[in-house]
Amino acid sequence: MTNEQHFEEELLTLYDEEGNEVLYRKMLEFHSDQFDKDYIILAEEGTQEEEELELIPMINIPDEDGEGGKLLPVETDEEWDMIEEVVGAQMDLGEEDFEA
C-alpha cells in the first residue's frame, strides 16, 4: 500500500451537531492508493497536552480547482484499519515528527 503524506500546519473551522463552530488543526494528510481517496486527520485545537488527543479522520474530496471541497466521515472498517496503520506509523516516528 502506497500512501503519499503531507505535513502542513493548517487550521480548519467546522461545525458540530449543534451548529457551533469548532476549530481543528490538520495533523496529517495522505492519499491511499488502495482506496483511491485522500484523507485528512484532524485534532480539535486547544486540547491541553495532558489530555488525550482525539484524532478525527475524514475523507477529503477537493473541489475542481483543488482548493476547499468537502470532508466526509470514514464509514468502512477497512478504511479505519488502514488509517490506524498510517497514524500508528507516524506515531512511531515520535510525537515531534507527527505534529504539524
User: Counting H and I runs of at least 4 residues, what is the number of helices?
Assistant: 2
Q: Structural class, please?
A: alpha+beta
Q: Topology as H/E string?
A: EEEEEEHH
* Poorly predicted residue ranges: 1-7, 96-100
End-to-end Cα distance:
23 Å
Query: Helicity level, as a percent range?
Result: 10-25%
Largest sheet: number of strands, sense, barrel closure: 6 strands, antiparallel
Q: Compute the gyration radius: what is it?
A: 14 Å
Mean pLDDT: 80
Integer tally of domains: 1
- Beta content comes to 35-45%
Shape: globular
Tell how many strands the DSSP assignment holds.
Answer: 6
SSE layout and pairing:
Elements: E1 3-6, E2 11-15, E3 21-32, E4 37-44, E5 55-61, E6 70-73, H1 77-92, H2 95-98
Antiparallel strand pairs: 1-3, 2-3, 3-4, 4-5, 5-6
Q: Can you walk me through this structure?
A:
The chain is of the alpha+beta class. Helices cover 20% and strands 40% of the residues. The protein has one domain. It contains 2 helices and 6 strands. Strand 2 (11-15) and strand 3 (21-32) form a beta hairpin.
Please provide a brief summary of the model.
With 100 residues, the protein is an alpha+beta fold.
Features:
2 helices; UPF0473 protein EDD62_0817; disordered C terminus; alpha+beta; 6 strands; UPF0473
